[in-house]
Amino acid sequence: MAGYEAFWAGFEWWWILPAGMIVLCVFMMRGRMGCMTGWSTYRRSTSTHAISPSDSPREILDKRYALGEINQEEYEEKRRDLDQTDG
After folding, report:
1. If pLDDT is split at 50, 70 and 90, which confidence band does 8 have?
2. Which residues, other chains included, contact 72 with Cβ-Cβ below 8 Å and sequence gap of 6+?
3. Cα dihedral 43/36/39/66 (nearest 10)
4. How many beta carbons lie within 10 A of that of residue 75, not counting itself?
5. I need a labelling partner for 87 at 20 to 30 A (CA). Which of 35, 45, 66, 81 fits?
6. Higher pLDDT, 16 or 48
7. Is 31 in contact with 40 (CB distance < 8 Å)?
8. What are the tens digits of pLDDT across the range 20-68?
9. What is the pLDDT of residue 43?
10. Whether the Cβ atoms of residue 61 and residue 75 lie closer than 8 Å to each other
11. Whether the Cβ atoms of residue 50 and residue 29 lie closer than 8 Å to each other
12. What end-to-end distance do the CA atoms of the chain give, in Å?
């Protein structure tokens, strides 16, 4: 019987594993929710570059190029198109 008790003596801290898993899950879900809700520590703010409905087509084109949404070739092509329609 002494061998049986000695075997289970090592499992008196068994509750640490489930508690640790719960804590890990909470932190992982907090991180995922932070990314979805904007609570994360690293957040790219584009509020200064946001395109508003009152912007002219040229301003929208400039902002899209500045944000990297379009490349230089596409920017110049669209700029020429806008210049032809304006003039």
Report:
1. low
2. 65
3. 20
4. 16
5. 66
6. 16
7. yes
8. 999 988 888 877 665 555 554 444 544 555 777 788 889 999 988 998 8
9. 47
10. yes
11. no
12. 99
Q: Which two tokens stand for residue 36?
A: 């979805």
Write the DSSP assignment of 5-37 as a string of letters: HHHHHTTTTTTHHHHHHHHHHHHHHHHHHHHHH
Burial of 48 (0-12, 13-18, 19+ CB in 10 A): exposed
Neighbours of 34 (CB within 10 A): 14
Q: How far apart are CA 7 and CA 30, in angstroms?
A: 38
- Decide: 52 and 60 in contact? Cβ < 8 Å: no
Cα separation, 78 vs 57, whole angstroms: 10
